[in-house]
Write a structure and sequence with these properties.
- 24% of the residues lie in helices and 31% in strands.
- Strand 9 and strand 10 form a beta hairpin.
- The chain is elongated and about 60 Å long.
- The strands form 2 sheets. A 6-stranded mixed beta sheet has the order 7-10-9-8-6-11, covered by helices on one side. The protein has a 5-stranded antiparallel beta sheet with strand order 1-2-3-5-4.
- By secondary structure, the protein is α+β, with helices and mostly antiparallel strands.
Length: 259
């Protein structure tokens, strides 16, 4: 590999080695600065570091710039592309991959978070385990740009929602609204799951859905992103479990409101 490295190239390769035990593979003699990161079990790529001419990315000039191609949850692609330094994927499927500039314009922690997402999106599927029976609490992101959830709940307290995790009937689902709201606004119960659903667009892909029933509304300042930070939640990029400490605080808020 050439001596040329971007601001984050070395950090990413060190992180991949430490976190995933992955060594970079340079597969093309013609492109010595291209490095593939792949899973050891299923051999799927989860990231590619490339140096490409800026004009090929729609940027001014023709100097070489480092980018990281990662696979992304289709629900998030539209909002991520609005961020500085994140763009449609170069030489990959633009419906499921993005390119991230490694020149420092994207925060390093976000780059690592996107790398983790890509790793999860491409890892080998686990063998089917016995179905969980105890209820669980989830935080699920929503993008107001693509779906007006408030209007949907005004029409009916039970709506159809994308199911992208092992959610079962009886689970609690907290809907986190992305920018510009950046807060949990709704508490719901999963009342029906594993509903076959086939929808694909440039911004969204749904193959399985669930029905969720609204049980509580929160004010924007009650469970803001800043407040979630205090409970160890620094990003809501996909469905995730609720820490016990946050669960207790949410229950306190709900009980206070119901008095």
């Amino acid at each position: 590999m050439s001596e040329k490295i971007g601001v984050y190239r070395k950090d990413i390769l060190e992180y991949a080695k430490m976190q995933y035990h992955t060594e970079p593979e340079c597969l093309w003699m013609r492109y010595p600065n291209y490095a593939v990161l792949r899973h050891s079990d299923n051999k799927k790529w989860y990231a590619v570091i490339m140096d490409v001419s800026a004009d090929k990315l729609g940027l001014p000039g023709n100097e070489k710039v480092d980018i990281l191609n990662v696979k992304c949850d289709p629900l998030m692609i539209g909002s991520l592309r609005m961020e500085k330094g994140i763009m449609p994927s170069y030489h990959m499927n633009k419906g499921s991959w993005i390119s991230v500039l490694l020149d420092g314009s994207v925060d390093k922690e976000l780059v690592f978070g996107l790398l983790q997402m890509s790793y999860e999106q491409t890892k080998a599927k686990q063998k089917k385990k016995s179905r969980r029976t105890q209820p669980k609490e989830w935080i699920v992101p929503a993008n107001p740009k693509y779906y007006d959830i408030e209007s949907a709940f005004e029409k009916d307290d039970t709506i159809l929602w994308k199911q992208s995790s092992n959610i079962i009937v009886g689970d609690t689902v907290y809907i986190y609204m992305g920018l510009p709201v950046s807060a949990i606004l709704y508490q719901c119960k999963a009342v029906e799951v594993d509903i076959p659903y086939d929808y694909d667009s440039d911004e969204l892909s749904i193959h399985k859905a669930m029905k969720i029933k609204l049980t509580h509304r929160f004010e924007k300042d009650e469970l803001s992103f800043k407040m979630l930070n205090e409970y160890g939640i620094f990003a809501v990029r996909g469905p995730r479990g609720v820490p016990n400490s946050l669960s207790h605080e949410i229950k306190r808020l709900c009980n206070v409101d119901e008095l």
